[in-house]
Design a protein that fits this description.
single chain; alpha/beta; Rossmann fold; 3 domains; 15 helices; 5 strands; binds zinc ion
Length: 336
């Protein structure tokens, strides 16, 4: 059974409320995708119902009947509302919401506490969300809501106001890296790249494709080399990434634009004193930090222009050349 990486303070608060027998009736777990919000919700429901002795002191046992049913998604008292992966729409249908509300009025089957897990809340369109409001405010005795949101700003204020909001922050990149190495047998260099690219979201770091990361790191080094060298290097790179027909180079050019955005973001992070840049360290990153803030703004605009131009231009090469030349000009104008 996978443990939860990080979020110790949040867990301490949530678990203490459970131990005291006074959990809030609705928690809203907020934070970026891949952070571990759903894992916390699942483990919370498991802990509340674990049949092992004193489960509140630690993580649930993961092996009792209740834990196993929750892990398998078959516990009759842990009700899930999530988008149906079989359907084209990513919305949680209002019928599903009504069905869950109906089930909360039944007696509990076996659980000490019944939970309704909604993942993510923003997948409920307004009518579905409105249908849930009354039960969310006053759930039947012994029933609690665990709501997961990647984008709480998109929720109805009436949903947010009925919940105790739990905001989850990023897990330190070093911890994500060490976890990938120790628990998932990842190679150190790839683990480091994945942890950085995930911005401290363990689930995201785990799902990133190592080969893609390696390729991206190579492309970044090429872009940095072209930006720091003679203009011919820029031309050569533009030619290289736009070989063949459009459908062949579209992905490569999109990756190059993202690499430039990574460099801009790292420049901002370094300039504003963030502890670690999100991509691997490189001596030239300091030059991007030197462009903060106006030069980096202009670079961002150049990336946006490149995206717009790609919609209308036939030649990817011209667009890539224009972008890299613009960024190179900013770097050249800034004293190292
Ligand atoms: Zn258990």
């Amino acid at each position: 059974m996978t443990g939860i990486l990080g979020h110790e303070r949040t867990r301490a608060t949530l678990w203490a409320a459970l131990k005291a027998g006074r959990p809030h009736h609705a928690y809203l777990l907020e934070g970026p995708r891949g952070l571990g919000k759903r894992l916390i919700a699942d483990r919370y429901a498991m802990t509340a119902n674990c049949l092992a002795e004193s489960p509140f002191e630690a993580l649930p046992c993961g092996t009792c009947t209740s834990c196993r049913q929750i892990l398998a998604g078959t516990h009759p008292d842990v009700l899930l509302l999530e988008p149906d992966t079989e359907r084209a729409s990513r919305a949680i249908p209002i019928e599903a919401v009504r069905e869950v509300i109906r089930k909360t009025t039944y007696h509990r089957f076996s659980a000490r506490r019944r939970f309704v897990i909604v993942d993510p809340v923003e997948a409920m369109l307004e009518p579905a969300a409105n249908a849930l409001l009354k039960t969310l405010e006053e759930p039947p005795d012994g029933t609690g809501f665990l709501l997961v949101s990647h984008n709480p700003a998109a929720l109805l204020p009436t949903i947010r106001s009925r919940c105790q909001r739990i905001r989850l922050g990023a897990v330190p990149v070093e911890r994500v890296r060490d976890w990938l190495i120790a628990d998932h047998g990842r190679d150190r260099e790839l683990a480091d790249a994945a942890a950085r690219a995930s911005l401290g979201c363990p689930g995201t770091a785990l799902s990133l494709d190592p080969e893609g990361l390696q390729k991206r790191a190579g492309l970044r080094d090429d872009v940095l080399a072209a930006l720091g060298g003679p203009l011919e290097g820029v031309m050569a790179l533009a030619v290289r990434v736009t070989q063949g027909a459009r459908q062949e180079w579209a992905t490569e050019v999109a990756a190059l634009l993202e690499v430039v955005e990574d460099l801009i973001r790292d420049g901002v992070l370094l300039a504003t004193g963030a502890r670690v840049p999100t991509t691997a360290p490189h001596p030239d990153l300091q030059r991007f930090a030197g462009l903060f803030p106006d030069g980096l703004d202009r670079c961002s605009r150049a990336v946006q222009d490149a995206r717009d131009d790609l919609e209308v231009y036939v030649s990817g090469r011209t667009v890539v050349e224009a972008l890299l030349t613009a960024v190179r000009r900013e770097l050249a104008a800034c004293p190292a």
